[in-house]
């Protein structure tokens, strides 16, 4: 039986911390979700498993994972050295709206306003286990950097520079392709005021930032 949504942040954090040390295999058996396959192939399923275990109800809708609490769940894979080695997806981006987007009203800001980080630790024997969960809200200094990245990236998109925009742009936030395969297309502003067809994009947090805030929530790497 799936748990009911948590009543408040304290209950959510208690649930998450109660999972610490449990293997993904035992959790998947408990909640009836198969995690067969390589870690990369099952990444989405790990997130789904934690959603079930913690009582998340947001699903695939355009809302938070815990809508009543306005808390987003982010599972973060850690290597055997205990640090993340890959970027973390935040949300998809409407490229055609880039020239009108503002940080204060953006979905990426809303998603990052309150995050429950749940590390998934790789063990030497190849298994994976739940690490210590923590709730995080960006400090004023952190948000200033994130807002600057957001504005620089979408400013370039809005000016028609999508095809020349690489994932190297942005101190902590980066824009990367987000699609099931390269044949998926969407429209974006072109340099001459027209539209160009391109791969959908999403905002991601760089691994060096998530690594830093897992060690120190107020870090400014």
Helices and strands in order:
Layout: H1 9-18, H2 24-31, H3 43-54, E1 72-78, E2 88-92, H4 107-112, E3 115-122, E4 128-130, E5 134-136, H5 140-158, E6 173-177, E7 186-189, E8 195-198, E9 201-205, H6 207-215
Parallel strand pairs: 1-3
Antiparallel strand pairs: 2-9, 3-4, 3-5, 6-9, 7-8
Highest-level CATH class: Alpha Beta
Shape: globular
Rg: 18 Å
- Helix proportion range: 25-40%
N-to-C series of helices and strands: HHHEEHEEEHEEEEH
Q: Low-confidence parts lasting 5 or more residues at pLDDT below 50?
A: none
Give the strand tally: 9
Structural class based on helices, strands and sheet pairing: alpha+beta
Question: Quick one: biggest sheet?
Answer: 4 strands, mixed
Indicate the CATH architecture: 3-Layer(aba) Sandwich
Strand content: 15-25%
Q: Tally the helices: what do you get?
A: 6
Average pLDDT metric: 93
Terminal residue distance: 42 Å
CATH superfamily: DNA mismatch repair MutH/Restriction endonuclease, type II
Please indicate the count of domains. 1
> What is the third-level CATH name, the topology?
ECO RV Endonuclease, Chain A
């Amino acid at each position: 039986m799936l748990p009911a949504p948590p009543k408040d942040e304290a209950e959510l954090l208690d649930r998450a911390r109660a999972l610490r040390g449990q293997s993904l295999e035992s959790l998947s058996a408990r909640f009836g979700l198969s995690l067969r396959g390589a870690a990369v192939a099952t990444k989405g399923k790990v997130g789904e498993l934690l959603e079930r275990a913690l009582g998340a109800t947001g699903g695939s809708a355009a809302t938070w994972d815990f809508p009543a609490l306005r808390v987003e769940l982010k599972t973060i894979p850690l290597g055997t050295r205990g640090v993340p080695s890959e970027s973390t997806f935040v949300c998809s981006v409407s490229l055609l709206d880039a020239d009108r987007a503002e940080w204060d009203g953006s979905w990426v800001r809303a998603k990052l306003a309150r995050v429950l980080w749940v590390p998934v630790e790789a063990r030497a024997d190849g298994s994976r286990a739940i690490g210590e969960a923590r709730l995080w809200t960006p400090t004023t200094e952190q948000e200033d950097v994130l807002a600057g990245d957001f504005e620089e990236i979408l400013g370039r998109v809005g000016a028609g520079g999508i095809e020349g925009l690489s994932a190297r742009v942005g101190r902590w936030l980066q824009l990367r392709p987000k699609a099931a395969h390269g044949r998926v297309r969407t429209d974006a502003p072109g340099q001459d005021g027209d539209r160009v067809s391109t791969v959908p994009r999403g905002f991601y947090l760089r691994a060096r930032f998530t690594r830093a805030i897992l060690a120190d929530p107020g870090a400014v790497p």
